[in-house]
From TrEMBL:
It catalyses: L-seryl-[protein] + ATP = O-phospho-L-seryl-[protein] + ADP + H(+); L-threonyl-[protein] + ATP = O-phospho-L-threonyl-[protein] + ADP + H(+). Residues 503-779 form the Protein kinase domain. InterPro entries: Bulb-type_lectin_dom, Pan_app, Prot_kinase_dom, S_locus_glycoprot_dom, Ser-Thr/Tyr_kinase_cat_dom, Ser/Thr_kinase_AS, SRK-like_kinase. The keyword ATP-binding applies. This is Receptor-like serine/threonine-protein kinase. It comes from Carya illinoinensis (Pecan). It is an enzyme of class 2 (transferase). Belongs to the protein kinase superfamily. Ser/Thr protein kinase family. GO terms for biological process: recognition of pollen. PROSITE patterns: BULB_LECTIN, PAN, PROTEIN_KINASE_DOM, PROTEIN_KINASE_ST. Its EC number is 2.7.11.1. One of its GO terms (molecular function) is ATP binding. Residues 1-22 form the signal peptide.
Length: 817
C-alpha cells in the first residue's frame, strides 16, 4: 500500500517536473497535458492550458503567440479545472475530451463520423479542427472550434445561422475578465424577417446594427472598405452569415464582445507590440435599442434627441415631456387603408427593426410601394439593396422602432400616412404670405429679445464682478418646492430598518457627503440605503435635489435609484447595490489596482464618458453633476462604472449653457478653475473633472495630494510635464501590467489633457470625447492645463469636500468676483 502511494507521488512529481512539449497535432497516442502546447504551422496561434487574470482555475484555450493574454477561444468555459492535472486527448472515434485529475470528462467535442486516423490540428486561422489524417480534404472537418465561437470573431469565422441544419454561430461575452463562462451578452444575426446584426442582453436586443444593405449594415454606415480586412454578408435559402477576411494575412485583427456587452475590433500593431482599437459599438444614446419608442427618430445632435415622425404625436404627452420617450408616438390620423393613403419620404436613416418585415430581391421600388399600399398593415417600405440605383423591396408590418438619423450616409424610408395627414404636412411646408410676414416679425422680435438678454447678462456679470453677491443659482430646488409627482416608489421606514438590520454598524458601507450608507436586503434584492444625517443642516436640500435629479434618469452608467423613504424625520434614498465599491478603492491602492488591467480601465473611462454624455446632452434639462470624482464612481459585478451621488447636481434648460453660483460646492482636485475661482459652472466644468479622473485612472495617482521629488506640480502638472518632455508613457500606473495598448494610453492621456484645459472653450464636449476615445482621428494638441500646481491648494481648506457660503469665500482670494 505504502509502495503504491510512493509510486503515485513519484509519478505526480515526475509529471510536474517534466519539461513542456510543443506539438503540431494531437493524436490518440499524443495528448496535451497542462504545460504542453499545440501551435499552428505559421506560429500565429497556440493552444494550451491557462488561468485568466488573477483566477486560479485552469481552462483550455487558444491565444495569439505574440500576445498570450488575448485568449480567442475556450473549450471548458463553463467547467473549469481546479488543478494543473488536466489532459486533452483525442479518442479513436475522433472526439476531443478534456479530462480532470480523476479521469472524468469535463468537456468534449462531438463528431460527424468515425475517422480512420483521428488527428486534431490548430490551423493558421486559429481554428482547432478534428480531421481524418488519411484524407486531405480541407474544409471537410469532423469538428471545428469555429462552429462554437466564444467571445471572439476571427477572420474566416462565420457569424450567423445555417438555415438547413439549424447550427447557429454567435459570440457570447465572458462573465468577467476572470471568468470565461458564458455571460449575458451575445452578438448574433437575428434571422427573423430580413436578418439583422444585433447585440443581445439575455433574450432582449440591446443594440441593433441592423440589416445588410448591400454595402454595409444599415446602422453602421461607417463600415467602409479598409486596408485591413474585407467583409461579406451572405443571405440565401441555405444560410445567412457575416464573415470577414484579412487582406494581408500577416496582420492580426479580432472582433470581440467584452464582458460589458460592447463589441470592439482590435488590430495588432507590430511596431508598438500592442492592440489598437479599430471601432467600438454603442457610442451614444440613440444606439440603445428602441430608446425613443415606436414611430420616432433619434438624433444625438438634437435636444431632445427623440422626435415623433411627422404625422405622429407622443403617445403620452406627460411622459414625453419628462424625457421618458419609451412610449413612443402614435398616428395623428388613422390610415384609410385604401388608395387614399400615401407615403412620406425620409432620408439618412438607420432602417427600423426588420424582425417583422418581408423582403424580395427582384421587386423594384415602385412595385414595392404598390404592395405596401395594398396591405393595410404595411407601414413603410424601402429598397433592399442600396448599391447603384437601388434594388429589391423591403416592407414593414406593424410599428416601426429603433430608427436614428445620421448626419452622413443612412438610407431612405417611405412611411405610410393618411392622405389628410400628407395634405396637412404639405400645407405646413408652404407658409402663406401672412404666415411668412409673421415669421419674419417673430424672428426680428426674438433676435431683439436675445440681444437685450445678452446686454442684461453682461451688465449683471459686471455688477457681480464689482462685488455684488446676489444669489443667481439657476435652479434652486428649495424655491421650486418638493415635487410630489415623481412616480418614484416610496419604502416604509420599518421595511428599510428590517432590511438593514436596524441600520447596524455591520451593515454600514461607509460615510458619504450627507450621512452613512448601509447595505441591506429588501424582498431578496440587495440594496444600498443612503440615510440623511438628522443633524446635517444643509442635507435636506441636497437630498431633494438628488431625488429630483435622478428619479427619471436611466442609463447603464448611472447608479439606479430604486426608491426613497420620507417618514417621521428620516429621509433615505434606496439604490441598487454595487458590489465592487467605488473606483478610488481600486485605483489608488497598490494591490487592488493590479485587478484593473488596461482593458478594464478603458471600459471604465468609456462608461463614465457615456454616463456623463447622457447627463449633459440627452435631456431637455441638462444635468451638471458638479462632483464627479473617483469616489463617486461605483463599480458593478463586472467592473462597469456607475456615476453616483447627485446631491450637488444642477439642471439647466435645453439652451442654457452656463451658470454662476456663490456657493461653491464640490471637491478640490476635481474642480475647474472658473468654478473654483468665479463660481461659474457649465457642462465644461464636469468635463474638467472627467479629465482629472482619466489622468487618475491612467496613472493610479490622486490629483490632489500628488507629490513628486522633482517638482511641486500636481498630477495635471506632472502629466503635462511628461507630455512636453515627450515621455507621456511615464505617467502609466505600473499595476496595469502587460495588457497595455500604447496607442490607447496615449490617446487617453491626450484626451485627459484636453479636458483639463484652462479655458472651458478649449475643452471638448462629451460627445467629442467619446469620438476621440474610440476613433483613430488626429486629436488637437493640448496646451498647459488649468490648476497645474498644487501650491494654491493649501489656501483653500484642509477639508477634501468643500461647501462654502458667499461670506466665507469672499474672505479668501477665491470668492466669486
Ligand atoms: O467606496 P465605498 O465602499 O462605496 O464607500 C462609499 C460609501 O458607501 C459612502 O458613499 C458606498 N456606497 C454608496 N452607494 C453605494 C451603492 N449603491 N452600492 C454599494 N456601495 C455604495 C460607497
Amino acid at each position: 500500500m505504502e509502495a503504491l502511494a510512493y509510486l503515485f507521488v513519484y509519478s505526480l512529481l515526475l509529471s510536474l517536473l517534466r519539461s513542456s512539449i510543443t506539438l503540431d497535432t494531437i493524436t490518440p497516442s499524443q495528448p496535451i497535458r497542462d504545460g504542453d502546447t499545440l501551435v499552428s504551422a505559421d506560429r500565429s496561434f497556440q493552444l494550451g492550458f491557462f488561468s485568466p487574470a488573477s483566477s486560479k482555475s485552469r481552462y483550455m484555450g487558444i491565444w495569439y503567440l505574440v500576445s498570450s493574454e488575448i485568449v480567442v477561444w475556450v473549450a471548458n468555459r463553463d467547467t473549469p479545472l481546479n488543478d494543473h492535472l488536466g489532459v486533452l486527448r483525442i479518442t479513436y472515434e475522433g472526439v476531443l475530451v478534456l479530462l480532470n485529475s480523476t479521469n472524468s470528462t469535463v468537456w468534449s467535442s462531438n463528431t460527424s463520423r468515425t475517422p480512420e486516423i483521428p488527428v486534431a490540428q490548430l490551423l493558421d486561422t486559429g481554428n482547432l479542427v478534428v480531421k481524418d489524417g488519411n484524407f486531405d480534404d480541407p474544409g471537410n472537418f469532423l469538428w471545428q472550434s469555429f462552429d462554437h465561437p466564444c467571445d471572439t470573431l476571427l477572420p474566416e469565422m462565420k457569424l450567423g445561422k445555417n438555415l438547413v441544419t439549424g447550427l447557429e454561430r454567435f459570440l457570447s461575452s465572458w462573465k468577467s475578465i476572470e471568468d470565461p463562462a458564458q455571460g449575458v451578452f451575445s452578438v448574433r444575426i437575428d434571422p427573423r424577417g430580413l436578418p439583422q446584426f444585433v447585440v443581445m442582453e439575455g433574450a432582449a436586443i440591446k443594440y441593433r446594427v441592423g440589416p445588410w444593405n448591400g454595402l454595409t449594415f444599415s446602422g453602421n454606415p461607417a463600415l467602409r472598405p479598409n486596408p485591413i480586412f474585407n467583409y461579406t454578408f451572405v443571405l440565401n435559402e441555405n444560410e445567412v452569415y457575416y464573415e470577414n477576411s484579412l487582406l494581408n494575412s500577416s496582420v492580426f485583427s479580432r472582433f470581440v464582445l467584452n464582458p460589458s456587452g460592447i463589441a470592439e475590433r482590435f488590430t495588432w500593431i507590430d511596431r508598438t507590440h500592442s492592440w489598437q482599437r479599430f471601432l467600438a459599438g454603442q457610442l451614444d444614446q440613440c444606439e440603445n435599442y428602441g430608446f425613443c419608442g415606436a414611430y420616432t427618430t433619434c438624433n444625438p445632435n438634437n435636444s431632445p434627441i427623440c422626435a415623433c415622425f411627422e404625422g405622429f404625436e407622443p403617445k403620452s404627452e406627460r411622459n414625453w415631456n419628462s424625457n421618458d420617450w419609451s412610449d413612443g408616438c402614435v398616428r395623428r390620423t388613422p390610415l384609410e387603408c385604401n388608395d387614399g393613403d400615401g407615403f412620406l419620404k425620409w432620408t439618412k436613416l438607420k432602417l427600423p427593426d426588420t424582425s417583422s418585415s418581408w423582403y424580395n430581391k427582384t421587386t423594384n421600388l415602385k412595385e414595392c410601394g404598390g404592395l405596401c399600399l395594398k396591405n393595410c398593415s404595411c407601414t413603410a417600405y424601402s429598397n433592399l439593396d442600396v448599391r447603384g440605383e437601388g434594388s429589391g423591396c423591403l416592407l414593414w408590418f406593424g410599428s416601426l422602432t429603433d430608427i436614428r438619423v445620421f448626419s452622413e450616409g443612412g438610407q431612405e424610408l417611405y412611411l405610410k400616412l393618411a392622405k389628410s395627414e400628407l395634405d396637412r404636412i404639405e400645407k405646413k411646408k408652404q407658409p402663406s404670405k401672412i404666415k411668412q410676414a409673421s415669421i419674419i416679425g417673430s424672428v426680428i422680435l426674438v433676435t431683439g429679445i436675445i440681444i437685450l438678454g445678452v446686454i442684461a447678462y453682461i451688465r449683471k456679470n459686471r455688477l457681480h464682478s464689482k462685488g455684488m453677491s446676489k444669489r443667481i443659482d439657476k435652479k434652486d430646488w428649495d424655491n421650486e418646492g418638493w415635487n410630489e409627482d415623481m412616480e418614484l416608489p416610496t419604502f416604509d421606514l420599518t421595511a428599510i430598518a428590517n432590511a438593514t438590520d436596524n441600520f447596524s454598524s455591520n451593515n454600514k458601507l461607509g460615510e458619504g457627503g450627507f450621512g452613512p450608507v448601509y447595505k441591506g436586503t429588501l424582498d431578496g434584492q440587495v440594496i444600498a440605503v443612503k440615510r440623511l444625517s438628522k443633524n446635517s443642516g444643509q442635507g435636506s436640500k441636497e437630498f431633494k435635489n438628488e431625488v429630483q435629479s435622478i428619479a427619471r434618469l436611466q442609463h447603464r452608467n448611472l447608479v439606479k435609484l430604486l426608491g426613497c423613504c420620507i417618514q417621521e424625520d428620516e429621509k433615505m434614498l434606496v439604490y441598487e447595490y454595487m458590489p465592487n465599491k467605488s473606483l478610488d478603492f481600486f485605483i489608488f491602492d497598490q494591490t487592488k489596482s493590479k485587478l484593473l488591467d488596461w482593458l478594464t480601465r478603458m471600459n471604465i473611462i468609456g462608461g463614465i464618458a457615456r454616463g456623463l454624455l447622457y447627463l449633459h446632452e440627452d435631456s431637455r434639462l441638462r444635468i451638471i453633476h458638479r462632483d464627479l470624482k473617483a469616489s463617486n464612481i461605483l463599480l458593478d459585478n463586472n467592473m462597469n462604472p456607475k456615476i453616483s451621488d447627485f446631491g450637488l447636481a444642477r439642471s439647466f434648460g435645453g439652451d442654457e449653457v452656463e451658470c454662476m453660483t456663490n456657493r461653491i460646492v464640490g471637491t478640490y482636485g476635481y474642480m475647474s478653475p472658473e468654478y473654483a475661482v468665479h463660481g461659474q459652472y457649465s457642462i465644461k466644468s464636469d468635463v474638467f473633472s472627467f479629465g482629472v479622473l482619466v489622468l487618475e485612472i491612467v496613472s493610479g495617482k490622486k490629483n490632489r495630494g500628488f507629490c513628486d521629488p522633482d517638482h511641486n506640480l500636481n498630477l495635471l502638472g506632472h502629466a503635462w510635464r511628461l507630455w512636453v518632455e515627450d515621455r507621456p508613457m511615464g505617467l502609466v500606473d505600473e499595476s496595469v501590467g502587460e495588457s497595455i495598448s500604447q496607442s490607447e494610453v496615449l490617446r487617453c492621456i491626450q484626451v485627459g489633457l484636453l479636458c483639463v484645459q484652462h479655458n472651458p472653450e478649449d475643452r471638448p464636449n462629451m460627445s467629442s470625447v467619446l469620438l476621440m476615445l474610440s476613433s483613430e482621428s488626429l486629436l488637437h494638441k493640448p496646451r498647459q492645463p488649468g490648476f497645474y500646481t498644487d501650491s494654491r491648494r493649501t489656501d483653500y481648506s484642509s477639508s477634501e469636500h468643500a461647501t462654502y457660503s458667499a461670506n466665507e469665500i469672499s474672505t479668501t482670494s477665491f470668492g466669486p468676483r
